[in-house]
Amino acid sequence: MKKIDAIIRPEKLDRVSDALNEKGHYAMTVSDVHGRGEQRGIRLQFRGKEVMVDLIPKIKVEIVVDAADAEEVVAIIKDKAYTGENGDGRIFVYDIDKSIQIRAE
Ligand SMILES: Nc1ncnc2c1ncn2[C@@H]1O[C@H](COP(=O)(O)OP(=O)(O)OP(=O)(O)O)[C@@H](O)[C@H]1O
Ligand SMILES: [Mg+2]
What we know:
The chain is of the alpha+beta class and 105 residues long. The chain has helices at 13-22, 70-80, and strands at 2-8, 29-35, 42-46, 49-53, 56-65, 89-95.
């Protein structure tokens, strides 16, 4: 099994989620997070002054799938979360040892 953590733009969540659903990848955990990447935040104009915003709001989507499905999930997220601008996000893939369903015998 693989775990895919995708940090994406909040406004891209619906597109990503719908596309994953269409391909049968229903299970996911979604959180509001704040982060920064290679540009170390962004400069914004606020009341005529330049303000540095250090940590930018993002959405983290966590998905655990069979290893064979990981590439497809990554490809869907990459396609649906893309704008081509800085800050589109980042995808991390991990190996998973176990997934235990609590209600199962
Ligand atoms: N090395 C990292 N470790 C942990 N989180 C990261 C890392 N790089 C990016 N992130 C997370 O991903 C979010 C989006 O990052 P971002 O899209 O700016 O990545 P980037 O590598 O700077 O790419 P780009 O050049 O397209 O902006 C960040 O806000 C942060 O939450
Ligand atoms: Mg960046």
